[in-house]
Write a structure and sequence with these properties.
alpha/beta, 13 helices, TIM Barrel, 13 strands, about 15% strand, three-stranded antiparallel beta sheet, about 350 residues, globular, eight-stranded parallel barrel
Length: about 350
């Protein structure tokens, strides 16, 4: 499909980025429903990896943010991913930040977004997940949860607990997103006092849910690439203390050094794509050195080739996730990365 996407991309890039995003996903849905995707795409790579008691068909996943509401699950699954992560979802629906809120930095193969957790609310998302064939057939589906913008930061834990309770039954694993730069004060949850309080309440809630359902769902924490070694060490200690099962490294960055002077570089929001690759990989390395084999790491950030995916695995990640790379490279990137990681 590489040639087809290279023909489509200039046209898509003439559109507003959010409009292009929505149009692409709606057309993927149609192609999947009409049976075209299977004929257009290569056969998914089989390379099973077991992590936290879950068998992932291959180690390449979809990062949260691309399908915030679970509206496109079956179409995205047809692209060959080993797993999907949906969200970020919040307890109540919210519109997110004012538009425009997504910007391409094409020369840097990057995106800046300040979407602001726009979503229809967790209950609507759960209902869509239940209707998807991917979920009904046992596909690996992570649910990424966050707090509503209107909830004061000191009450954030209550939102995370509500969201976790709502997704617990349908999620293969649950990701706690405390690292988006697009919800005011959210990254303050990465500090010791707030993070300790949040993880304690999530741990208590998971114990209740595990007793109720007879299954302990893995909990992952998603962190920023802008943390220093001291911050990472602190987070690693708390993850171990509260029995968190894994960590996703990383979210988008607020740094702009690598894109200075480019159009849209000074727009507020999180920067993703090629410029975040090195910082995200360094966080993976630091975490691996600190955690060893005690907790698995999912590497995400700046993966635009199979070589980039191998870099994350070499740094210490067990699995990888894609998002911005799909915008610049198209769906063939999924199989390229999966093939590059086979037997790694």
């Amino acid at each position: 499909m590489t040639d087809r996407y290279s023909l489509l991309r200039p046209w898509l890039f003439c559109l507003d980025p959010e409009q292009a995003h929505n149009l692409t996903l709606s057309n993927l849905d149609r192609a999947q429903r009409w049976g075209f995707l299977e004929r257009l795409l290569a056969k998914p790579v089989a390379d099973p990896r077991t992590l936290c008691g879950i068998t992932f068909p291959n180690p390449v996943g979809l990062a949260a943010g691309l399908d915030k509401d679970g509206k496109h699950i079956d179409a995205l699954a047809a692209l060959g991913f080993g797993f999907l992560e949906i969200g970020t979802v919040t307890p109540r629906p919210q519109p997110g930040n004012p538009k425009p809120r997504m910007f391409r930095l094409t020369e840097a193969q990057a995106i800046i977004n300040r979407m602001g957790f726009n979503n229809d609310g967790v209950e609507a998302c759960v209902a869509r997940v239940r209707r998807s064939r991917f979920w009904q057939n046992g596909g690996v589906l992570g649910m990424n949860i966050g707090k509503n913008a209107a909830t004061p930061i000191e009450d954030a834990a209550s939102d995370y607990v509500i969201a976790m309770e709502a997704v617990y039954e349908i999620a293969s694993y649950i990701t706690v997103n405390i690292s988006s730069p697009n919800t005011q004060n959210l990254r303050a949850l990465q500090g010791e006092e707030m993070l300790r309080s949040l993880l304690s309440k999530l741990d208590e809630s998971r114990k209740r849910l595990s007793d109720r359902d007879g299954v302990r769902k893995p909990l992952f924490l998603k962190i920023a690439p802008d943390l220093d070694t001291t911050d990472i060490d602190l987070i690693a200690d708390l993850l171990m203390e509260f029995g968190i099962d894994g960590i996703i490294a990383t979210n988008t960055t607020i740094a702009r050094e690598s894109v200075q002077g480019m159009q849209y570089a000074q727009e507020a929001g999180g920067l993703s794509g090629a410029p975040v690759r090195a910082a995200a990989t360094q966080v993976v390395k630091t975490l691996k050195a600190r955690l060893g084999d005690h907790l698995p790491i999912i590497g995400v950030g700046g993966i635009l080739s199979g070589a980039d995916a191998r870099e994350k695995i070499k740094a210490g990640a067990s699995l990888v996730q894609l998002y911005t790379g799909l915008i610049y490279r198209g769906p063939d990137l999924v199989n390229e990365c999966a093939k590059a990681l086979k037997h790694s």
